[in-house]
Amino acid sequence: MQIEIARMERMAERGSSLLRLMQNSHTPILDLLVRESIQNSLDAAIDPQCPVRYDISIKEFNKEKAVRHFDGIKDKLSTLFYENKQKAIVIRDWNTTGLTGPLHYKFIKNNNFGNLLKLVYEISMPQEKKEAGGSWGLGKTIYFRTGIGLVIYYSRIKLPDGSYQSRLAACLVEDETKEETLLPNNQTGPRRGIAWWGQQFENISTIPLTNEYEINEILNDFNVKPYGKYETGTTVIIPFINTSKLLFQNENGNLSWWHKDIELYLNIAIQRWYSPRIDNKYYQYGSFLIPSVNGMIIDNTNMEPVFSLIRALYIAATRGIDFVEDIYKNNIYVKNIELRRSLSDKLAGRVAFLKADKDTLKMTVPHNKKSPFDYLEISHIAQDYNPPIVAYVRKPAMIVNYETDGKWTNGIEKTDSNEFLIALFVPNSNNAVITENERISLDEYLRRGERADHSSWNDLMINEKKYTIVERLQKNVVRSINEVYKNNNEEELQKIKSTALSRTLARELLPPFGFGHLPSPRKINTDGNKVFSKNRAKGKLHILETKYMNDGKAELIFNIDIPFNAEMLTIEILVDSEGNSKISGDEWEKDDVIGTPFPVEIKSLMFDRDYEGLDINIVRTEKYGVKNFICIKVNDFNGEIKGKIIMQKNDPIIFAYLHEKLHFKRS
Amino acid sequence: MSGGIPFHNILNEKLYNKIGFTSQPVKAFYINEEKEKIEMSLEPIEGQENLYQIVDPKVNWDPEIHNLELKQIFEIQNPGFLFGNGGLVDPESILGIAVRWYSKESQQYYVYPVGEIANFDNQVKEYKIDINIPKGTLRGKVTFELVLYLKYLSSHTTNIVPGTILGVLENIQILFDGESSIFPIVETNDPSKPLWWVVCNFDDPLSDPFGDENIKIVINSGHRHYKNIKIEKGIGSSPLLVEILASALQLIIEKVKSTGEWEQILRNESEPGSIGEAVYYFINTFGWDYSTPESLARSIREDFDQRFK
Description:
The structure holds two protein chains of two kinds. Chain A is α+β, with helices and mostly antiparallel strands. Chain A is built from 17 helices and 30 strands.
């Protein structure tokens, strides 16, 4: 393949700076590689109904055959690696789109770079897909840090016209400041330490190979099979790896079995970070994952117990405890995590957790599995207790991190050494964060607050306003777990309330209302409470004076202030019925209710003067024709009217009411 | 709904003015643990018309623990106007006077008869109210009314039945708890624990209520120095309690300051009733200087010296 050495440009990254980017010293390289590569595969899924297949393998290849494809560095490579048998990590996915998009910058339309240019030729190009797994475009630098900096990208895609195309290119990123570099040193001036291989394009540039024959020859030399005729996907080959260097050694040298073999290590690493999405047909945001190492598929039947349990916690948090296998079901708790503000729906997510004993985790004979701390690569030396483990995920269901100290666990009681408290927080991803002028989902908020290595969540400033969603989530998770497990001994004593003291201090130190009561306080409206209220609300009927006349008649002088835009005023007599309800005339006269004439009648209605425009009617009950209903059409009148109603009651026991109602114009 | 239509006369303003009703302030008492009768005061609640609370100088009275005795003297100078033409009932009927009290919160309704008025005693009538309300019945906002009702019906009257309320002479409302603010201070009794401490259980000072589920000052009555907290005449009569409060509030403010929400609290963006709103109220209303821990400690005490004399 033709070499294209990156020219020096302003503001351009150099190999040394790329390799330093996203230095995550606390996560081993193979873990970062697994996290990044699976995320890329999942983000490229074609059909959410169809699981994404992912494989990571260690393949041997023949050095002499392989190096001949890399113009410009063949000899250096050949001398640098003495052994003819070399190893490569080969990462391959299926049911994915592959590296689509333009083959060269010249073909870019609408600033649409496409997957190919972004992955192979660009750096720090963020994902366009919101809430995608990655976000910073820096994750792929891990490919360069895994081997010697040389990475071969092979992909098969479906073109917009329906035909298929294979693409292959290589990229090298090396520290240009080192004395021994792979790239030729014959340039004068500064070097960048970056090069690509492919087919020549317009003299000074290259594009990926697309010739199937040439591609197959290279694949063959790396011992990699081409995709089938109708398959699409991406394969990343990282040659010249040093397996013993990649298998990191932990400090005390007490290595678990998976540290002895890179394939075993990869198997555990895949489970460590992706257990919620592996073999999980309940996963609701897209394709679930079927991963394999050297072709050996990882599924729920062969996952390590602790990871199978974390997968169960995810299912419990997202679908409910009923969907979980019986062995975990009875011990799992799921609690809603609610935030009272900042979100459009208060449900911020759910935390699922349990205390698992050594039997559940198969740490006993005959299985003798390692402790969760070993599987999670968390150093834990104390013998007599176990700290709680809290993990958290976003939509992609990759574990962001496992925490045993810090804000996710502060205040949760340690368990004794026979028990492990394991919790998983799953956000209500589609919930919206309330901001002034931007609509972002909770998942997007959390993604933006992840560092480039996606290893923790941090709160954001949006429009110069600091948010504290993550901080509150953490406290809430701690509290929810404590509510289930914490002994309440301490609290039990505090039953005696000091009411008099509380009240006196409230009087001295707080406003009169609104503190110390749930639900949220409301203002008391005492509207005067004088014996004789002068309060006159608009549109309400006010009885100014009543006079009882000895013949059973009562005279009521009333006024009412008719507001603008009213259309009609009705005044109806109702009488008390059983159970605090009031019944109308027509109701009373029904045979199955009382069946006698309504006992209160309007004898006369007079006004203190002639109100122009008022159209007054007194309506009778349907059956016995008792006048009990006043209907006043307002006809653009507004203002106060005053009048007198004389009523007769024919039954001393009943109690009558006046009920007024204003009807407004529709406009 | 405009209320009932009275097919009888009721006490209107005109008649009320004619009869000459006057009353003295309501007095409140309780019997404390030492069998002393303690007089309390009824103090109007700021900004609320006709709404009072009962204040015990010893800061001890609790309507759940102690009975409440209410006393009042009132007189009606011209009771004759209540009878006959222009009055409430015919001259041969007899009216009763009663105190009734009710509250929605405690779902209680009680009536205590106080006396009666007949047409023939047309002279100044003085009445004494002395009612004893059992503990555990008063909750929330309670309305006390002095009412006139028909006690005995003469043969001339057919339109009303005895017991009908014909008018209200006076009413007041007393707030016992319910909606008035409560300061989160609780007592415990455990000789093995210190005299006081503070519990902070909140996640979010901007929205978590300033109540004892989220934050509280705990006073330990089992501690050997608890007797030194004794209050004789208001909070200021216990310097130890004032000192505890000052320290506890400083601690609470420093704790709230250390959360990420301090800027929003200072802009008063907290929810009503929240811890943030309470802290905002303290530092703004009382002028506490929160700029450094030592200035806060000092300014709280300067304020308390004035506040709790």
